[in-house]
Structure formats: structure tokens, C-alpha cells
Amino acid sequence: MSTHSRRRKISEKQSEESSDDENYVPYIPIKQRKKAQLQNVELRLGRAAALIKEEEEAIKQSTSEGSEASDREDGEDSEEDEEEEETQGVGERSHISLLDQHSELKKKAEAKKETAREKLLKEEERILESVAEKTALMGVAELAKGIQYQEAIKTGWLPPRCIRELSEARHARLRKKMHILVEGHDLPPPIANFKEMKFPKAILNGLKKKGITKPTPIQIQGIPAVLLGRDMIGIAFTGSGKTLVFTLPIIMFSLEQEKRLPFIKGEGPYGLIICPSRELARQTHEIIQYYSQCLADDGFPMLRCGLCIGGVSVKEQLEVIKAGIHILVATTGRLMDMLNKKMITLDVCRYLAMDEADRMIDMGFEEDVRTIFSYFKSQRQTLLFSATMPKKIQNFARSALVKPVTVNVGRAGAASLDVIQEVEYVKQEAKMMYLLECLQKTAPPVLIFAEKKQDVDAIHEYLLLKGVEAVAVHGGKDQEERTRSIDQFKHAKKDVLVATDVASKGLDFPDIQHVINYDMPEDIENYVHRIGRTGRCGKTGIATTFINKTVEESILLDLKHLLIEAKQNCPPFLAGMTSESEKYLDIGGEIGCSYCGGLGHRISDCPKLEALQTKQAQNIGRRDYLANNSADW
Ligand code: ADP
Ligand code: MG
To answer: Would you say domain 171-409 falls under CATH 3.40.50.300?
Structure first.
């Protein structure tokens, strides 16, 4: 306001001066008139420069001091300053070349940008703070009693002497070589082979049979951390072998417990693994069964692993559980139900792993996680894994962990570099026809994703009509059909699987050649998970995504920047897309959005946050909303 009023004063003054000139001086020789004119111009220039300067000054002050600045400007002092600056302006301008003036102005503009940048960062921090969860991610009892554990759980495992004797610098070198980033206190050592992790021969042979001889980076750092009893957040690309990081240690711990005191009827589980989909839970259960069998075949006691998922009879599941189990793999809905009905207890449970953890904590799931936590009776080891985990969720999740270690291989949310990503513009009405052509790109197996169940059904029907050996999976189908379809596809009896995002997270189909996104998911994280079904464990795969003008601009911008990050071809229609907010993408702090992890926007423009806020405002029931995301309730 003060600059405005000042601007008004100055223009009034100017008009007074000019009227003086016209009305009161009858004749002035031409020489004098020209001189006066020149002075006038100079004066005006000076004033303009002074005004610009003041405006900049005001902006700077308002960002650094706030109201203080404007108070001062209203006082008399400011008038004096104005005079001073005016004369300075004239002096400066008359001695400095235009080029210098230009560069000076440019510098000023830069400085202005700088303050805008700071302002933006501050604003972002404020937003992130306002959406941060106020209650720690802990069980109700722990919260109420104020229980806080300080130390990690003790286990019977120690790194072998040869590793213990190595210097910290040596560990750092290995981590650097494998692109492993670790954070936390008392970092566990990385171990570059399974043998030195002290796994029994039976496990080593079991791994070898699956073609697994050398640990991947997340396993090199993650497995020793978990074996040492540490709480951990593990972030690594899709298909980089995260599952073994949390399954092998719990198998070893259970074995140790069983040897010490065999599990009796109704006892257990000792370890709990939670997954966001039934199919993923089933897959994880199978992996544990496989290694348990390897051990049993070698004379170790047989470990019992239960599966607790929706869509199958409780009675069957209960039978296994009642016999006493070492490990339980579950989806949240059924687990909470059975905990609530006291069919399962977590009295002796000391180990909790959450796979695709961000998907579970995100968007209001945390209340369920808290409920599950509240069933634990004493300290547990907690592990969280995913390929995508925005800072907001990492920070929040950390409140559930004790002295955590964060292991990061690649940026959280980055796409696997083993996937060739292609994006094609396909008109809405041409999609189905083009799909058939697109299927020819590679040999089977091919995975097709669509957002809506109806689309999955339509594509499935179309492909069957065209003679393609296809199966389909979505949340609306009964569990028996879902399981059958997945099994047929897994065992190469069918060439194509059409699915919703139910099948996008964690499922490990062997050798998928091609993932086709019939539509772009609403969430860039889901895109990363979908295309991550191919290009697994060192193999290369292709992902084709259909986009057209029905797709939201913000998600296309996220996609554009994800492609650039992964050094993929960016088609011209995508490359040519720009937005206002793109200017601020690299202003520092977190890259991209600190709320959802998207690279194409900042938190201030996050569509996901906006959607969440709208939904909260409309007070839509949490369960209904989640039912859209996951059918595993
Ligand atoms: P993520 O959970 O990180 O997406 P998974 O744990 O599902 O990945 O593993 C992907 C695939 O890689 C699986 O088929 C698994 O058997 C295989 N795999 C895991 N670890 C290794 C390894 N060290 N060497 C070779 N293959 C591995
Ligand atoms: Mg996984």
C-alpha cells in the first residue's frame, strides 16, 4: 500500500511541476527550454529507477522482516530516503553504460527470483507441516502409556568375525560401489554374499535352485540389518529382491525359537507380514513355504506359516493357525477381523514386516495400522519396504520405528532402469484396436493394466473374441477365479493377463516381456509399480502406455519428468508440455513433490493432496474410498 500511495504522491508532484511550466512562464529561450526538458527527463528516469529500487527493497524487507518494513515506510524517514535515492539514481544512471545498467537490473531480477524461491520453499514447508500426522504411528496402549523403546531388539545373530574386523571405511566403499545409501545410528555392515550372512546350507541350496547366488544391493545392506534386529525402512527399485530381505531373517528367527522351545497349539505367530493385496500375500506365503521346506528336507524342524486373506474361508485358515504358527502372512482387512474376534493373538509376535508399506500407510490407512500395532504386547522389530515412499510417509513411518536404519537404493519412486518405457498417443476410441497391434510388439507373457473393472472385462472379452489366450483379474471377481487366473498366467498356461491395480504391486511373474498401460493410472507411484512387473532382477522389459487428452495434465508432467530421469525417449507431445509450476521444479529441497513424490510438480500443486483434502471435506467413508484402491478388504 505504501508504495502505491507514494507512487500517487510522485505523480501528483509531477503534474504540478508540469502545470507550473506551462502556466507561469511566458517565454523561455529555446536553449534554456531544452536544458529544462533534459533535466526533466533525467529526473523522471531517476525517479523511475528509484521507484524500482524501492519496490525491490520493499519485497526483500517484507520477506525478511514482515510488517516491520511497512511500518517504517509510512513514517517521515521514508520521505528522506526517497529524496536521497532520487539523487543517487540520477547520478548512477548518468555515469553507467546501458550495458552495465542492464546487467545490474538482471542481477536484481535474479535476486528477486531468489526471494521468490525462498518464499516458495517456506510455503512448501508449511504445507507439509500442516498435512503431517500429529499422532505417532504407534499402538494405542503405547501412546497412552507413553512407552518408548530406545534400543533395537537383541537377536542371536552377529556378523562373522571377518566382517566385524573390516574398517568402517571399507564398508562405506562397498556401499558406494553398490549405490547403497544408509542412514541411522550404529550402521550394520553390508555383506556381499549369502554365506557370510550365516544362512544354513539348506537355504543356500534353495537360493541356488532359484538361480540366486549373489545378493542384490538392498539384500547386501538390508539382510544384515534385519538379522541384527534393527528396525528398517527399505527402499529399492521394483524387482530388486526386497522380499528376501524380510522373509529369510524371520525364517531364521523362527527356527531359533522352535529349536529353543517348540511352538504348541494356539501359539504364535512369532512373525507377521502384511501385504496390500491377497495375491501378494499368497506369493509371499509361497516363498516362505519354499524355504521352510528346504530346511525341513535337510533335517530342520518344519516351520508353519499361515495365510490370512479375504475371499477364502476363515475356517480353513483357522485350522492352520490353531495348530500354532511361526509366521503369518496377511492382508489388513481379514487380519483385523480375526484379531477383533480373538481368533488370532499377537501376544508373542516380535516381528512385523509391511511390504509396499507406503501404499498401506498412505491415504488414511494409518488408523488400521495403528489398530494392528495395538495388539502387540511387547517390543517388536518393525520393517517397511517399498519402491515408492515419499518423504512425508517416511517421516511419519519413522515414528513407528525404534532406532531405525533407512536403506535406499536409487531414488524412492524412481522407475526401474531395466524397463524401456514407451508412451503413445492413442485416441480413446482407437485404444482397443490398437491394443491388438501393440500385443505384437513382443512375445508373451504380456500384462495389460486398466484402471476400471469394466475396462478390464471389456478388454478381456475383446481379446478372447480375437483368439488371444487371456485371463483377467480385478477386485470384483471371486477369489477362486482370481487365484486360478494368476496361477495360469504364472505357469505360462495363458499368454495375457488383464488386470486392475490389484495386480500392480509386488507380484513377481517370471519373465514378463511387455506391460501395457491401457490407461495412465491416476497416481505416478502406481505407474512405477505397474511397469515394475517387467524388467525384474536384471532382465529387460518393455512398458507401453496409452495416453490422450483425457489424461490429467499434472500426471502427464510427472510422467514426463520420470521419463527424463530414467533417460527414456520422451515423445514430442509430452516433451512440449510445460506448466507454470515447472519453473520451480528444481528450486531445491526435495526434488519434485514432497507429498506424493511426483517429479512434475511441487507440493503446492499436488493433485493428490488436493483430492485428499476434498475427500476429507466431503467426509467420504474411509472404507468406501479404500475399496477403490484395493479390493483386499
Ligand atoms: P521386489 O520385491 O524388490 O520387487 P522381489 O523380491 O519380488 O522384488 O524379487 C524379484 C525377483 O528376483 C524374484 O523372482 C526373486 O526370486 C529374484 N531374486 C531375488 N533376489 C535375487 C538375487 N539376489 N539374485 C537373483 N535373483 C533374485
Ligand atoms: Mg516386492
So the answer is: yes
Q: Ligand 1 pocket, 630 CB below 6 A? A: no
- Mean pLDDT, residues 479-502: 95
Q: Output the CA 536–ligand 2 centroid distance in Å.
A: 11
Three cell numbers written together for 371: 489398530
Position 289 pLDDT exceeds 70 = yes
Nearest CA to ligand 1 atom 10: 239
Please work out whether the CB of residue 244 comes within 6 Å of at least one atom of ligand 1: yes
- Give tens-digit pLDDT for 206-228: 999 999 999 999 999 999 999 99
pTM of model > 0.85: no
Place of cell 493377463: 497
Single-letter code of the amino acid located at 85:
E
Q: SS3 for 47?
A: helix
Name the closest-CA residue to atom 25, ligand 1: 212
Q: 482 with 279: CB under 8 angstroms?
A: yes
Cβ of 485 below 6 Å from ligand 1: no
What is residue 633's three-state secondary structure?
A: coil
Report the nearest atom of ligand 1 relative to the CA of 236.
Answer: 3
Distance from the alpha carbon of residue 256 to the mean position of ligand 1, in angstroms: 25
H/E element holding 405?
strand 405-409
Going by alpha carbons, the residue nearest to atom 22 of ligand 1 is: 212
- pLDDT digit string, tens, across residues 124-151: 878 877 776 666 777 766 777 777 787 8
Q: How far is the CA of 446 from the centre of ligand 2 (A)?
A: 19
Cell triple for residue 529?
Answer: 509399480
Q: How many Å apart are CA 480 and CA 486, to the nearest integer?
A: 10
**What's the CA gap between 200 and 202, in Å, rounded?**
5
Q: Does residue 508 line the site of ligand 1, with CB under 6 A?
A: yes
At residue 587, what is the residue type?
A: I
If you average pLDDT over residues 545-555, what whole number do you get? 92
Cell digits of residue 597: 513424490
What are the sequence ranges of the domains in the chain?
A: 30-57+101-131, 171-409
Q: Grid coordinates in use for 621?
A: 467413508
SS3 of residue 517 by DSSP: strand
3-class DSSP state of 614: helix
| Cα 386 from Cα 439, distance rounded (Å) | 29
